[in-house]
Amino acid sequence: MPEAQARINRRRAIARIGFGAALAGGLAAAGVWRTVNRHGDKPTLLTWDEVAMMLVPLDLLNVKNLGQRFAAQEFPGSTADAIMSTLPDVSGVAWSVAGVRWKGAAWTVPPALDSAVREEFAAGRTVVVESWVLSRLEATLCALAALHATSAGSGVPNLVGG
Amino acid sequence: MFRDFRSDPLPDGYRCDLCIIGAGPAGLTIARRFDETPLEVCLVESGGFEREPATDALHEGENVGHEYSISGSRLRFFGGSSNHWEGLCAPLNELDFEKRDWVPGSGWPITRAALDPYYERAHEILDLGAFQYDPARIGPGAGSYARFDSGKLVTRLWRHSAPTRFGTKYRAQIEASKNITCLLHANAAEFSTTADGAKIRSLGLRSLAGDRATIKAKRYVLACGGLENPRILLSNGLGNRHDVVGRYFLEHVHIFTTGTVVTSATTDSRGTNGRWWEAYQRFTRDGTDFTPGVCLSPDAQRREKLLNYAAMLPKAQSPEGVRPGHASVRLYVVAEQSPNLESRVMLADSVDAVGMKRLRLQWKLAETERATVEKGAMLVAQELGRLGLARFTVDAVMDASRWPSGVWGASHHMGTTRMSDDPATGVVDRDCRVHELENLYVAGSSVFPTGGYANPTLTIVALALRLAEHLKERPE
Q1: Per-residue DSSP letter, B18
Q2: Mutation for testing the B interface, residue in A58, A108, A136 having most B CBs under 10 Å
Q3: What is the pTM of this model?
Q4: What is the pLDDT along chain A (162 residues), one digit of tens a residue?
Q5: Angle, to 10 degrees, between the axis of helix A48-55 and the axis of helix A136-151?
Q6: Does the CB of B392 have a partner CB in chain A at under 8 Å?
């Protein structure tokens, strides 16, 4: 084979390998990114329902009932904004009207939030709601889930003034 | 050898070196220690070899306190309550023996270390295997237990005896013994004392058929259980100069606290072992069954000023409202009771078939016990939450107005002839001798000043071995 032809073939082979690798890498990255971030380049949103249920192992109706009770005993007459304003700062987590935003997977509770809840248990910052012992933070998240349900007209009674 | 008091009566004024009243775990343990010795031992038993309704009726009584079954689980025949016990055993903890300033009336005159050699030997008698309770050495693997903050909670173990039936296991030895006479169907009724009141002179026996006889022993051991021991002393006006006999009746406070809810997956998305509670189920090692439990650490008891507390975690049905894929574990709580002057055994006005006054029981529980159960449950809930293992309900104990509704005892009758160096606060001294009498001793859980959470039989047998040694080392 002439030397020039060999050089061209080698260049093509390298280009093909490079393209294949880049393609594979790109596909993989895209897949991972899609999996991790269902909102494209925006942080993942966990609704109040979702995050409350990740922490408290009850069904949705019971999670909301707990939230409603807690809101009634701790925040009578308060709005969602007012309740949300009591949430502590948690690293990497942003509280929003719709729920919890963070740059991570949609199927798991943000580790920093999980740690914050565990720290509350360790420090004894717990509340008893309908006989359940919950961390104050997770009880507040349940309250926001309950308020969200009220706003969405799910049939759960209005907590305001309860 | 055995003799039946009804058909083979003793000669009146029968003499022996040691008279032991009651052939249950304590009485039999002491008697056996004197087998093949030159001492003549008479073991007096109210029943025969099987349960008999007329004999059972002798321990019926009146209950004027918290709901309690006085005769429900007591057995009045050779082998005593070991004829139906479940076999759960654990030693008392070191702190149980200490004087705790937040538990009035606490403090044994002996230490746990002093009892350890006897615990070890009691293990042989109760078929419990080695005297080893360290969960790091025994179990499905130390890593399987929840990694509690040791300043709050600790994992401890109970061992299960076969369960040893004393009446079955040791009957042949008593039968073959040349120096132990077990007198069946004989009820200890009346003690007579010397003129100065310092010694027991004789014991009057009665049978249900009306037979009577008198035993004259050099020394006597009362081993009839935590209800009958004070009843016999009160009936005879013995050892009660300071009005302590029958007082401080203790039980173990039992209550179910509703469900721990746990993930049932092997691990959850946070890498938490969702089946952690399986390590707390009963398991077998080297031929012995064990049950682990979650207990308040000594530091937590001191810091929070609580009584001792333990919880077992039997699996329960999933409660309503729990998401699929989750399981529920109930918290089966056994808490210590604080010594309480008003929790007591008294004498009723009515008499039984042999003419002895029946007992009247007033079991009283205090706020201290409720606070311990509540705080214990909260600490369990908080620790399981900290570890990400479970969420928890505590409704059964939060309502003080309902206390002690839902609490039951386990026929662990303790404290009614309590041990103390001070005659004003105890019926027996550290050697289990009645303070006011030179030759009367008491064996069994009635001498416990406090009872921790541990089932009492192991400690009863250990103390019986210790008393037997004392009696052997210090002959009259």
Answers
A1: E
A2: A58
A3: 0.89
A4: 445 554 545 555 545 545 555 555 554 444 444 444 444 557 899 999 999 988 888 889 999 999 999 999 999 999 989 999 999 999 999 999 989 999 998 888 899 999 999 999 999 999 999 889 999 999 999 999 999 865 443 333 333 322
A5: 140
A6: yes
